[in-house]
Amino acid sequence: MTPRIAVLIPCYNEEQTISKVIADYKSVLPEAEIIVYDNNSTDKTSEFAFLSGATVYKEDRQGKGNVIRSMFRLIEADCYIIVDGDDTYPAKNAREMVDLVINKHIDMVIGERLSSTYYKENKRLFHNAGNRLVCWLINTLFDSNVKDIMTGYRAFGRTFVKTFPVLSKGFEIETEMTIHALDKNFLLKEIPVEYKDRPKGSTSKLNTYKDGYKVLRTIFMLYKEYQPLAFFSWLSFFIFLLSLILFIPVLVDYIQTGLVPRFPTLIVSGIMFLCSLQCLFSGLILDIIVKKHRQLFELELNKTNRP
After folding, report:
1. Which fold does the domain 5-206 belong to in CATH?
2. How far apart are CA 110 and CA 39, in angstroms?
3. Where are the domains of the chain?
4. 163 Cβ partners below 8 Å, 6+ apart?
5. Can you give the pLDDT at residue 120?
6. What is the 3-state secondary structure (H, E, C) of the chain?
7. Which pLDDT score is estimated for 273?
8. What is the pLDDT of residue 73?
9. What is the mean pLDDT of residues 58-86?
10. What's the rounded Cα separation, in Å, for the pair 146 and 234?
11. pLDDT at 125
């Protein structure tokens, strides 16, 4: 049976580049279905995509995460390629990505830009720094070695797509899907891809500060949810440290004078110590729940993979 391949292109005001992107992927993957999701564009993105031979869907809920949620829920395929509609990623890598998913059974293929042309082509300084920060945080917190977290060029197997619970609404979706793949032990493979900056007249929809904040918030929220014992152990440690800082002067006064002149400080210190214990036990309980969820997830994967 011939594998079904879907090239998914989320778009918002990409009339300048969408026709070329569609033509490029049709040339490399003529057997694939090209699907454009228009996310409330105010230009002629939908018209140009339709005239270029793509299937066009509308997504009224604004945000890339909302678009990918609809894509993953509605589109049926054996291999999914997601690529931005801004012509910054080369179609020539698509065949290799499909081969890795279909024949090598890779769950997520990541088009890694940072070791090739990204820092040369990208003219937005804070985007470069943000990419480095996000990679360092995720690799440190989740004990991984992913080189490019924020890339918009990926290929997925059906199992990942149909079992990934999309919660993000915006550009933090790439962070969420990477952390989910790491936590659930999916098979990841990075391949270097060339990156070129947007053509003149095309503007990025990514807000450096607003979306950067959302990405960092997503990392720490998912760290808390996926690794609660580590998160709450660190939190418990810092609260305990504060309680100790408050308690030591009171203890010294008591040893020297036999009196407790700063009784409110002692009370606050005791309360903080109890809070640190509560955090630790919360982490232990939540860790058991998370492990049980992982077990249930593996059982669901077994059901999904049945022929």
Report:
1. Spore Coat Polysaccharide Biosynthesis Protein SpsA; Chain A (3.90.550)
2. 23
3. 5-206, 227-305
4. 297, 300, 301, 304
5. 74
6. CCCCEEEEEEECCCCCCHHHHHHHHHHHCCCCEEEEEECCCCCCHHHHHHHCCCEEEECCCCCHHHHHHHHHHHCCCCEEEECCCCCCCCHHHHHHHHHHHHCCCCCEEEEECCCCCHHHHCCCHHHHHHHHHHHHHHHHHCCCCCCCCCCCCEEEEHHHHHHCCCCCCCCCHHHHHHHHHHHCCCCEEEEECCCCCCCCCCCCCCCHHHHHHHHHHHHHHHHHHHCHHHHHHHHHHHHHHHHHHHHHHHHHHHHHHCCCCCHHHHHHHHHHHHHHHHHHHHHHHHHHHHHHHHHHHHHHHHHHCCC
7. 96
8. 94
9. 95
10. 24
11. 61
For tokens 């009196």, the residue is: 259
Q: How many residues does the chain have?
A: 307
pTM for this structure? 0.86
Question: How many beta carbons lie within 10 A of that of residue 55, not counting itself?
Answer: 13
